[in-house]
Amino acid sequence: MMIEEKKEGLFVSLLAVFTYVNIFSYSFSFVLDILFSTNFYLLSYVTAGSGFLIVLLMMYEIIQSGFRISRAKLEALILAFIVIFMILFMYLSNVTLSNTIKGVYNSCLVRAMPCLIAGVMCYENDAIRSLEKFLYPLVFIESLVLFYVVISNPTGDISLYMKLGIDRQTLSYSGSYMFSMLLYYLVNRKQMNCSDIFKSSVATILSIVLLVSNIFVVFAGGGRGAIIVCGCVGLFFWGKANVRLSYKIGIAFLIIIICVSGYSTLSSSAIVGEGFLRITSFFSGNQDASSLERIEIYKSAWELIIAHPLIGNGVGGTILKLDIWAHNFLIDLMVDYGIIGFAVILVLAYNFIKYIPKMVGDSRINELAFVMGISYLIGLMFSGSYLSDGGSWFLLGFVMAYKESLYMKGEVDFEIYE
Fold first, then answer.
1. What is the DSSP string of 74-135?
2. How far is CA 159 from the centre of its chain?
3. How confident is the model at residue 3, as a pLDDT?
4. CA distance 143 to 130
5. Distance between CA atoms of 105 and 353, rounded to whole angstroms?
6. Cα separation of the two ends of the chain
7. Hey, is 1 helix, strand or coil?
8. pLDDT at 253
9. Per-residue pLDDT for 378 more than 70?
10. Is 220 exposed, middle or buried (0-12, 13-18, 19+ CB in 10 A)?
11. Cα 238 to the chain's mean position, in Å?
């Protein structure tokens, strides 16, 4: 019995760690590059390796259960096979594919689809609770490395970031994701399933310092969506924090004062000035070259929608036609699948999204899974492709499994299960 319990504990711990690594593979591989001074870019190895190990864990679980598959896992596998089939069809029907679209398709196979499966498995095995044991040290190290990279580039020269194997977008969004994880820790640290060392006053103070440092990293990278991720996740935790309303209002005013007083300092800073101006210019009338380029991409994507309004241009259609994604996953979905496909996706998505508020309210662990996924989903409104993203697919799989649990309890009467 003890051996079986140890096996089960090891299985869940491995699932938790591989899921975290696969979702945050960009920042995780970059951290490894910096810490161990590797001479090659680790992203492909980290992503493919963790994705492959997630699939192996799923196969192990299915075999151990006597080939019994839960409804949620079956749904995830069917969805994964549909996406994989569409990608294979695009490979076979297009003689020449750019490296960009190949990269996105491959990322879908080794990151997005494993994350979808991992979401289901994490809920069914309560693996997110196990992730809490490793969360603080992982986020602590990643945040330190990201901050080190920024302050080691006092001129804010983008070419120096590129030499380290990271671009502004990756730097900025990595900072926003670590910001989200640290906020979760600060709000829930007393109840977290981790060592008492990570609940100490010293760990709390360090976390607050790292929280601020990640905002610095976000500005240095200049990611528009990254600052929105920080704002949305910050509002989420500000709203649920167990403090009096007067304190919340006071904190809000303090943040506003800091932002207003720090505007001139940030905009003139050599380290974060360019990134800061990239962010502010996108939301103002004085748009820089990068913002204007983004608007042109939106216009080109809209033309693709008009050209094939009903059934779209096929999976990855925006990248196939423009060699770049639309920097907004809703536009990408419209381009890829047309009005009909987009409407079907919205209906199916609503079938699961409507259970998220109840899911988050049911458990602190569900809240962590939600934050991991929603951070990426918000980011997809401004950058990246839904095909290569891991966090949003993970959240979908997690909600699938949660909905099945409601069905088993008799709280869901029909819909996809009948």
1. HHHHHHHHHHHHHHHHHHHH-S---HHHHHHHHHIIIIIHHHHHHHHHHHHTTHHHHHHHHH
2. 26
3. 36
4. 21
5. 25
6. 37
7. coil
8. 52
9. yes
10. buried
11. 20
Q: Is 222 left (phi over 0), alpha (psi -120 to 50) or beta?
A: left
The burial of 323, by beta-carbon neighbours within 10 Å (0-12 exposed, 13-18 middle, 19 or more buried), is given as: exposed
Cα Rg of the chain, angstroms: 21
pLDDT at 407 over 80: yes
d(CA 28, CA 21): 6
DSSP 239-269: HHSSS-HHHHHHHHHHHHHHHHHHHHHHHH-
Tell me which DSSP letter residue 380 carries: T
What does each C-alpha distance from 417 to 174, 352, 360 come to in angstroms?
Answer: 37, 12, 22
The two tokens of residue 272 are 């974060």
Instruction: Provide the whole-model pTM.
Output: 0.88
Q: Could you tell me the sign of the dihedral formed by the alpha carbons of 332, 336, 342, 346, in that order?
A: negative
Per-residue b or e along 35-45, where b marks 16 or more CB atoms closer than 10 Å to that residue's CB: eeeeeeebbee
Residue 3 backbone phi and psi in degrees, to 5: -65, -45
What sign for the dihedral angle of Cα 129, 133, 139, 142? negative
Contact 93, 85 (CB under 8 A): no
**What HEC string does 290-346 produce?**
HHHHHHHHHHHHHHHHHHCCCCCCCCCHHHHHHCCCCCCHHHHHHHHHHHHHHHHHH
Q: What is the DSSP letter of 194?
A: S
Residue 413 pLDDT greater than 50, yes or no: yes
- Tell me if residue 154 falls in helix, strand or coil: coil
Least confident of 49-58, 109-118, 185-194, 368-377: 185-194
**pLDDT digits 0-9 by tens, 281-317:** 655 555 666 667 778 888 999 999 999 999 888 888 8
Number of H helices, E strands in the chain: 19, 0
DSSP 8-state assignment for residue 387 = T
Residue type, 374: I
Per the listing, tokens 């819909």 go with 415
Q: Among candidates 137, 313, 284, which has minimal Cα distance to 224?
A: 284
